[in-house]
Design a protein that fits this description.
By secondary structure, the protein is mainly beta. The chain is 0% helix and 61% strand. It has one domain (2-258): TonB-dependent receptor, beta-barrel domain (Maltoporin, Chain A).
Amino acid sequence: MRGSWGRYAQSQSIQELEISDGIVDYARAQRSDHALLGLTYQPRPDLDVELDLYEKRYSDLRPRFENLLNSFVLLPELKPDRIRIDAESARARGAELSLRGRSAGAALDWWATYSWSKAEDLFADDAEPRSWDQRHAFGAGLGWRDDHWQLDAALTWHSGWPTTAIELVALEPVAVAEASPRNSGRLGSYFTLDLRAARHFAFERSLLTVYLEVTNATNRNNDCCVEYEFNSEDGTPGLELETTPYLTVLPNLGLVWEF
């Protein structure tokens, strides 16, 4: 068993002043209190079981800026969905259960992890999920290796990240869109299967590794962001919303030569 508690202070680096969002003064250092309780159990030599519980409390937060719908754009500060978040404090808590196993010869190993977590911005009379709040997550992996080959597979699943719904509420005298409470909705769940194969060539004074990686091997369309556009092509203003995906299947071939 193990437990720990710590208090950390994070000052703002000189290049982190958010000039593009209109901030011209540096903020005081943010503070974070971390508490962790963990248990590791080995029922047999080839299996490890680990349980961790944690809580983090943040205070003295400086304002931050986010885009309600899509932050994966070249100049997010120019988009109309840019907002300022002035939370009084924040909190993150969660639990993680991990299993790790290996074969007797150490040629094959595997792991699996499940976690539950909750991350919130806290205001005087409300709490809102932080944009990276990830309530449920599961991961698993399998690896095999010998003197020349290394084969790995890993899958990741997690529940959808928060998003904010928006709708058109008025057309006259101008089109007006209204957002629901921040991060009150959820995008679809995320899943990816990643594969990697590597071949090692040992020389007298160097090692050459040739590898092939395939990210999102199942070519799944995972929800990333929401794109929006006002459209009045037919004479009637309208609001078009479209959920866009992350990258689909992505192969990567490379080599590493170590001297």
